[in-house]
Design goal:
globular; alpha/beta; 172 residues
């Protein structure tokens, strides 16, 4: 994802495993370019942080990498982003669950049929929500489609959500 945005772009990370991947694989090239809640796991801060970053630095590209659970906490803030003109790009890594908790349960030996409260509906489409709120929405399920989706999202001039379907086993 990092290669699809300018070097001075501001990236925001939100979620459990998704944030760990973003921290590990998303180089920071310029100061004041990386936001995430490092203390106490404040899930859901990603979209509000991204909106704030865009308002504070309107000439810089701002993108969010978020897990689906974390994004769901404040997804309605897309309406705020649209209303205030904060054209942020939200990349929602959708593994249909609370991936970090699911992983922790499995490491503790909990059988898959007893993983209670770790799943989210695979029917939720964050790209549809974005479009319903007057924003740009894209759905991708292959790496080959991601670059063009980001290009279209950035070109739209609107707040955008790219719902990226990922294999839950790989986001562990």
């Amino acid at each position: 994802v990092r290669d699809l945005f300018p070097r001075d772009a501001v990236v925001v990370a939100d979620g459990g495993n998704t944030t760990l991947w973003a921290v590990a694989l998303n180089p920071v090239y310029t100061p004041d370019s990386f936001l995430y809640s490092v203390k106490m796991g404040y899930l859901g801060t990603g979209l509000p942080f991204a909106i704030g970053a865009k308002l504070a630095a309107p000439d810089r590209c701002v993108y969010l990498i978020s897990g689906d659970g974390a994004f769901g906490f404040n997804a309605m803030e897309l309406e705020t982003a649209r209303r205030v003109g904060a054209a942020v790009v939200c990349i929602v890594v959708a593994d249909d669950g609370w991936g970090m908790e699911r992983t922790a349960h499995r490491h503790q030996g909990v059988p898959d049929d007893q993983l209670h409260g770790t799943e989210l509906s695979s029917e939720v489409r964050y790209d549809h929500l974005a479009r319903a709120l007057g924003c740009h929405g894209e759905y991708v399920d292959t790496m080959a489609d991601l670059a063009l989706a980001v290009e279209r999202a950035r070109a739209s001039g609107l707040p955008a959500v790219i719902h990226v379907k990922v294999d839950p086993a790989l986001n562990a």
